[in-house]
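User: Good morning. I'm curious how zinc ion would be positioned relative to this chain. Could you predict the structure with it bound?
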Amino acid sequence: MTKLDLAETSHRRFNPLTGEWVLVSPHRMKRPWQGKRESVPAAGLKAHDPDCYLCAGNLRANGARNPDYTHTFVFDNDFAALSPDAPPERIDKGLIVAEGESGVCRVLCFSPRHDLTLAMMEVSDIERVVEAWVEETINLGGRPDIAAVQIFENRGEIMGCSNPHPHGQIWATRHLPNEMEKEGRRQAQYLLDHGRPLLVDYLAQELRLSERIVSENAHFVTLAPFWAIWPFETMILPRRRIGAFDELTPEERSALAAALSDLTRRYDRVFDVSFPYSMGFHQKPTDGAVHSEWQMHAHFYPPLLRSATVKKFMVGFEMLGSPQRDLTPEAAAARLRDAAPQNLRSARRSSIPLSGFPSPVREGRPLRRRSGRSQPRPA
Ligand code: ZN
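Assistant: Good morning! Here's the predicted structure, ligand included:
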């Protein structure tokens, strides 16, 4: 019997948040790659695009005109996936089961600048985005017909995002969506069994092991979860128990903005390209219950695998069996640590004072191309 080496042999890893497994095949990193290559979208966007329905002062499809906003701007999606007045009726005929689902879909412009991304924005401007998320959580979550406020961002054409203007969405629903339901159930069971929130214990263990930590500041830690599915998947976790956006202190809001800036800028350096991803926050349901099992957190799911143009696909065994990955989360975390801006590098692994965060990439400046990229470090 040989010993199981998580950096060399095929194995499966358990995701305690969902109760599901992911297949990991580190030995496959040696095979030649012939995957699909995507074209890298051309840069050179204008600061204001007269044809963009998110830019300040422009007309939207429904005839409304955007205000001349200077920081963030929130509005109801003109093509909402949920209608606020869907009747809460249930159809239950044998195996044919359906329910009316009502809710609100909002769009949040992160900046009036058409040509920016979170990675290019100043931390102080990302703080305004965090403030908007807090406000939306309070307003939408406070409604009696809303049980969950899902905040997310699809970034990049490769993720199906049709408009490069920096923006995210907020979908608030009557019922808990699947992922929140799964994570909520697992966290509740863990709290019952151990008396402590699952993600608080998980973060403590990851900080002890220090194998998958990407970066830290005084209030948040970014890491590649042990059970990650996507090649450069990460989570941002608060250090203390925080159920939802409305529980963040002013310092924690700033620290979250700094953590988002740090991570998105690292991503952009991994392949020297504006990194596409789907990201979002999970926070406690807004159904009025206490939910002390819930620890709010962000998930980042970027699709890129080997370069700016090679994307991971979830097909075959992954659709029919379990998700599978080749690059280990430990190697991905090492790549992301290595992708730090120079003045951040020396500060990693310590509590970085907020003022110590470097200013973000200047608008329009091409990303620095590093020579002699280091190889992923085996776990
Ligand atoms: Zn989650």
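The first helix runs from residue 123 to 141. Residues 45-348 form a domain with the HIT family, subunit A fold (CATH 3.30.428.10).
Let me know if you'd like a different ligand tried.
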